[in-house]
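Continuing the batch. This is chain 6 of the set; chains 1 through 5 are on the previous pages. Same settings as before, nothing changed between runs. Recording input and output for traceability.
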Amino acid sequence: MKENILKKSSLKRKTRTDIFFKGFFMSVCILCSAIIVVIIAFIVIKGVQPFFKEYIVNNQIYRISFSEFLFGYRWNFAPNHFGAGFIILNTIYITVLALFIAVPISILSSLFIVRIAPKKIGTCLQLVIELLASVPSIIYGLFGQAYLTRIVMKISEIFNIQTLGGQSVFTASLVLGMMIFPTITMVSITSIQAVNNNLILGSLALGASKTQTNFKVVLKGAKNGIFSGIILGVGRALGEATAVSKVCGNAQVGPTFSLFDTTSTITTTILSGFNEASGMAYDIKFSLGIVLIIIIVSTNIVLNLVKKKVGN
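Output for chain 6:
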């Protein structure tokens, strides 16, 4: 009898504890979601205003054209010309280049750490990558400004191409590639470690070499997780501002697809002169914020759809 009473009281305590933590975590989730919604709503409200509001500049009234903003190729030209079309293209172009740099290196590095390297060496390399993931973005930017710009400038001299002190599309892509490399690699390592060992042993038992097993069985089994890492990397690349602003040159016209030309992204344009901006030049930066949110959300949706198809 006493045992039954103790069991019932124990179950009640567990149930109360579960209810408490469920409510607590639900409250935290709702709070965080509400904060995100408020931030997005604030940016949208501020970002829409420039297209309906009139601004007085030098005693003349100006308005910003939405079509010119969306498809224009010059930024901050004359009183009311803010064309973000080339900035959008530049942002996507640099992100794609950074992925071409980082993704192969990340996948091969994670495969080496988990499947090829001795355990101690693999552990040390994994620790190094974790440290790289914790490095602040400004450090990557300063490294790029101090060293990568010099390397890119020397490369451009070989091809007799002038650069703005090495600040270019190529340098910005290298810096972004370095930044997203740890993110993709860490997720890929976890995904490769989660591959069923029976699949690996079965492949080896059927006569496949270790290399064939690693590329055709291990990577195939980990492809969903690897793709998740790529999605996280893309999100970081699209949202990075500080590091890229140090090496891109902040071009005011475009688009440019030459590796050695100066460029600019949505985030660097928002960051540039934000504290000094006022009136029209200040409000239009929130409009760029709306564009960035749309690009990030759209990219995540597209990549997740691709991930589902790849996973099948």
